[in-house]
Amino acid sequence: MQVVLTVPKLACGACVDTIAQAVRQLDPQAQVEGDPKTKQVRITSGRSVSDLRQALTQVGYPPA
Ligand SMILES: [Cu+2]
Fold first, then answer.
1. Distance from the CA of 36 to the center of ligand 1, in angstroms?
2. How does pLDDT run across 4-25, given as a tens digit for each residue?
3. How far is the CA of 16 from the centre of ligand 1 (A)?
4. What is the CATH code for 2-58?
């Protein structure tokens, strides 16, 4: 499943790394791409959208 979340606080590559680590704790095989310009994070994983949203919120990047 692929999901695109808008993350207003996504500002740089380090933010993307933090988000990617959080997602991989849920799903080690997840693919995570983030673009600080568009504030969009594209996640490919087997986890539900609500699990992913919660993981991002827990590390300080709540999706819009
Ligand atoms: Cu950053």
1. 8
2. 999 999 999 999 999 999 999 9
3. 7
4. 3.30.70.100
Distance CA 44, CA 60 (A): 20
| Domain chopping of the chain, boundaries | 2-58
C-alpha dihedral over 3, 57, 51, 2, to 10 degrees? Answer: 10
Q: How far is the CA of 31 from the centre of ligand 1 (A)?
A: 18
- The span from the CA of 49 to the CA of 54, in Å, is 9
Residue with token string 């993350």: 7
Distance (Å, rounded) from C-alpha 18 to C-alpha 31?
A: 13
Q: Whole-model pTM? A: 0.94
